[in-house]
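Obj: model holo form, ligand = pyridoxal-5'-phosphate.
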Amino acid sequence: MMNLVMRSLENEFRNGDNIVTTLLEHNSNYVPWYALQNILARRGIDIELRVAGFDPLTGELDIDQLASMVDSKTKLVTTTGASNFLGYKPDLNRIGDIAHSSGYQQPRLDSFRGSYFLVDGAQLVPGTPVDVQKINCDFLAWSFHKMGLPLGVGGLYGKKEVLESMDPFLYGGDMISDVKLGKVEYNDLPWKFTAGTPNILGIAATGRGISYMINMGLGNLFIKGKISEPERIAKEGRQLVTDILMNTPRGDFEITKQLTDAENNLYDQFEEIDPDRLEVLYDANERLMATRSVVTEAMTNIMQHEEKLTQAAIDSLSKIPGVKLYGPRNAEQRSGLIAFSLEGMQHQNLAFELNRKGIEARNGTHCASLAHEALELDGTVRLSFYVYNSMDEVEKAVAAVDEIAKGR
Ligand SMILES: Cc1ncc(COP(=O)(O)O)c(C=O)c1O
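Output (holo structure tokens):
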């Protein structure tokens, strides 16, 4: 998705423009901008890539340095929403304000103030209630496979007027509205950016998966057969309402026409016990508000679950002699992963030993090469926690690290 933004903005850059990013980035939010610099240089357009650092002890982004790099030549400010190595979540509101007050004049959009602000949400969206209007970002990119959903499906939010001003990045298929010899019209948003035949299966599976995840976050899933009939109807009814909210397009829509016979039956039973919850489904606006509210509630619950597990892992791992943790110690400042090293042991060997004990751990630079280089590390080991992990599993992982540390 960062490539989409890069390719679609490629022709707008002017000589002397710059891009401001950070050392916290995953390679996929550094390499496209590095490549762009080279592509434009070959056309005689020189742009600068400025990279803000971070505190080596806490992993916190140096926002003052970032602010000092942004000026009236900054076309784009881009940062990760959560580092996939240090876990750190930068203050996106503040960075957005810095970007938008740069004084840069976007060449194709007179009405827009300042530099564009692109957030890499790959590690943020899966475990945080993200509100693009609150962050006031111009773009937010993420991948669904980081949420336990299918590979090859990603999301890009962009402000409408910004997307309208941009070039398509691929040509053909759905991005076409009309073709005559010598005259082609491009389609409206969002199809302008959906060239070719889409990954229909992947997208359909992602839609169902998101519903499942939101239902999980809301606590609507349960083990069948262990509860009373009215409780079952209430839980399954809430699941159905969530599915409808997550899968019904905007605007006027005949809700019950989408349902199977079994769902219609459940719908009627649920209507008898909770009619108010179904009432909102008939008004397009109320449905939109209800969707926002369930997503916020579910994602907040998922975030709190992750924070609980991450804090427990930080507290326990930091007591093991020889373990060095990277990133903030407060789980509220970070996403649900923790990278560490063990004195006197190669990261490859540590990960291998953990895997042998049944603990899934990843090692290497995790594609966060810049931050590893800044800390003079050739790799670390990373544990990640998500909605399906339990405190027992955290304890098991910590016990395994402790055992390996003692046996060195
Ligand atoms: C912070 C961050 N950004 C970007 C990516 C890249 O995602 P994808 O490979 O889906 O483009 C990752 C994946 O590891 C990531 O953690």
